[in-house]
Queue: 3 jobs
Job 1
Amino acid sequence: MSASDTPTPAASEPPVRPAKSVVRPAKEGEWKAIRGLIALFPNKLVQSPLPKLNHFFVAEVDGQIVGCCALDIYSRRMAEIRSLSVRPEFQGRGIATQLIEACVKYAKRRRIRELITITSSLGLFEKVGFGPFKSERLALFRQLEAPPPPPEAPPPPPCEDDGPRLS
């Protein structure tokens, strides 16, 4: 392909350059930014309850958090990738893929055998290796009202946390 064959963006479209992002586990003090990202998509992302802060990975560009994704570990066998959000102006630059891959890499280190996700972005997840379970094409969903908490319930006992950590 010669230089003259290289496709160029239309004059009205600015070229989309890949974002130089850093994906890392979320840190204390970043909860507000993460909740703000998720709140950008109220009709697509579950707003409550959210995974714990230490279950999140974040993507930074020039020191600004522009994306997030959580890995909720349910058991030694299964975890869910959820709460994937990228600021609209940074979409289409590979950041969501980097966030998903960070979750997958962490799950592999934890020897998780199955990952699930509930998404409206099928193509994105198929691109990184997700697909239907055997011949399953549809998952059925039923939303139930949460029962009210018991009055003055004691906090649950502390347990080992499965969230992503660098150490």
Note: Helices lie at 31-39, 95-109, 122-127.
Job 2
Amino acid sequence: MQGQTQSSGATQAAQPLMQTPPHVITAKDLSYLKDAMSWELIAMKKCAHYAQECSDPDVRACLDRIGRLHQRHYNLLLQQCQPTAVNQQPQTAAMQ
């Protein structure tokens, strides 16, 4: 059993890493993005709620900072779902 774990780990390590995301988002990719965005949004809302409920200013500041972190993560995921400026340049150039 242990040999199987090692051999499958070696196979995974040999695969090259993707340096840039593909231009097409599959349905499975979209599902992953949707889940991740939902988790970030929920975490952001919980931090905002508990920060309002908290009476300790240090804890409130910590919750605000963590909430902003989740908001940044949400925005980064959202950017991946939007068309890039590179993809829109040929359309703009054709219109001029």
Note: The radius of gyration is 21 Å.
Job 3
Amino acid sequence: MLSKLEKEYIDTRGYWTLFKPLALFYRHQLERALTRALRREGVALEGKRLLEDGCERGNLLRQLLELGASPGRCVGLDRDDAALRDGRDKTAAALRFVCGDAAALPFRSGAFDVVVQSLLFSSLPPGEARERAAAEMERVLAGGGVLVWYDFVERAKEGLPQGLELGEVRELFPGWRLAAYKFGLRFRWAHFLVNKCLWLAQTLASLGVARSHYVIIIRRP
């Protein structure tokens, strides 16, 4: 989706909410891609110990509950304590939110069956920071577990978070098996079209024109 800076810009103008067409467009695109990926790759969430790394306010965690994740076995981690407090206020009490660093996850090795990366890596600078975060995700993943990747691919202006293409994801998890599902519509296209001609934005997205995001199911070799 959008970078945190872009979302902050939009939030100040009051239209990055699910009452607005642009937010709903991206939400529906993600729901379809995530459901398709989990179903096709045989990933069941029910009863699994699940971590969302970079959960912000827990929006994706709440979607994962709708897809079968068990509230009492889900944890969301983020560095933004204010966002986590907001997430706690809006989410089922059984969900646990932890303030922490993706480069040094405060969990034991093999603690989770499913680890979800949610718009985290695009907010990290390329190089060592991303490599450390990937290594920590691998460390806390149990044997036979699954990594679920959700992030955007767009290259933003200098100084803003940068998306990752599939080859860059492969470099972070060398030798792992990746099943990638690209979806969505580049932000500039969607921003222009959704409010003017929603059916055209939906059609372009369904045709795979200028796709903007990845859901990737990642497994050990």
Note: The domain at 4-219 is CATH 3.40.50.150 (Rossmann fold).
